[in-house]
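In response to the reviewer comment on reproducibility (Comment 2.3), we provide here a single inverse folding case reported in full, input and output, so that an independent group could reproduce the run without further information from us. The structure tokens appear first.
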């Protein structure tokens, strides 16, 4: 009888330990996925605004002040989100560290008064495309690990 009781306790302990391990693993996966999606969303928003500014520069057209303010606000909000999630991603997504770091370096570069604005926007566009591609590849690799 004592052996059955000890056996039941051992089985219960193992089951709880297994369930807790699985729960922690799933939570970590959810946090990694949320950080990745937050980054992708913010990068897409910065890319959208940057494309609008680049188009404006190419056609030499000025937006009305209300629209220009909305674009600027969207850009800075999304850039701030990238900065916020970057520190979390350093821990949760180490494979994305270089892509995010490179992107942040380009976005933080203001250029000099001698630098043409269009070149700055084009440099940002290239960096945004590269970061987005890297993040999508990381996401596909992570999701592939779960589904296969």
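Designed residues, in position order:
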């Amino acid at each position: 009888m004592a052996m059955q009781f000890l056996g039941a306790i051992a089985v219960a302990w193992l089951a709880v330990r297994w369930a807790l391990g699985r729960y922690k693993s799933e939570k970590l996966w959810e946090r990694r996925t949320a950080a990745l999606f937050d980054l992708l969303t913010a990068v897409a928003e910065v890319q959208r605004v940057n494309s609008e500014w680049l188009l404006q520069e190419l056609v030499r057209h000025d937006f009305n002040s209300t629209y220009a303010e909305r674009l600027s606000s969207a850009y800075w909000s999304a850039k701030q989100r990238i900065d916020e999630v970057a520190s979390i991603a350093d821990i949760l997504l180490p494979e994305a560290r270089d892509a995010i770091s490179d992107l942040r370096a380009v976005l933080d570069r203001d250029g000099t008064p001698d630098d043409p604005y269009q070149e700055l926007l084009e440099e940002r566009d290239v960096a945004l495309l590269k970061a987005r591609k890297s993040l999508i590849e990381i996401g596909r690799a992570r999701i592939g690990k779960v589904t296969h």
